[in-house]
Amino acid sequence: SSDEEGSEEYLFKIVIIGDSAVGKSNLLSRYARNEFNPHSKATIGVEFQTQSIEIDGKVVKAQIWDTAGQERFRAVTSAYYRGAFGALLVYDITGKDTFESVRKWLDELNAHSDSTVAKMLVGNKCDLESMRQVSVEDGKSLAEAEGFFFIETSALDSTNVKQAFEIVIREIYSNVS
Ligand code: GDP
Ligand code: MG
């Protein structure tokens, strides 16, 4: 809808996927509310959060979806992916297995969404450097091979959280505008 002559509004759905406990819910709560929960349980009730940013003088809204813990049972439904314009594929840099799962999440995303979905590979928990099991190079080369963006984040200390979401939002905007 547009209120004024020449003003447009954009609304893009973005999904966050990845293994359980990699920090998906905390990345979203850090971005949308500047909150971190050290003892977070599976998200209950909230399906998505909406954040607006301004690009080229236009209001661009991102409707960012978080799983309600279904990923533990590999039961993320097709409705979750439907209509997505962007995706954050999250792993935990201290858990090699979560990095190895990225392939599985990518296959699932591709099965349920358009190939043009803007994708960001996110290595979360970069504050835990001493426990690192996945090198920056491994993250980078996977992203390069697949043509994704790549970033390491910490929902705990806020490193690159805003960037992770906003690079995706800007990419979607530039693809559609
Ligand atoms: P989800 O299952 O992927 O949604 O993961 P959560 O956001 O629930 O986080 C799982 C656990 O990891 C929680 O105990 C969080 O406090 C913790 N956590 C999440 N992000 C970070 C981070 O960037 N750094 C550290 N050190 N812990 C994190
Ligand atoms: Mg969660």
From TrEMBL:
> Which gene holds the coding sequence for this protein?
LOC113734640
Instruction: Tell me the protein family, please.
Output: Belongs to the small GTPase superfamily. Rab family.
Q: GO cellular component annotations, sorted alphabetically?
A: plasma membrane
| Residues of the whole record sequence present | 3 to 179 of 215
| UniProt-recorded Gene Ontology molecular function terms | GTP binding; GTPase activity
Task: Give the organism the record lists.
Answer: Coffea arabica
This chain belongs to the protein called Ras-related protein RABA5c
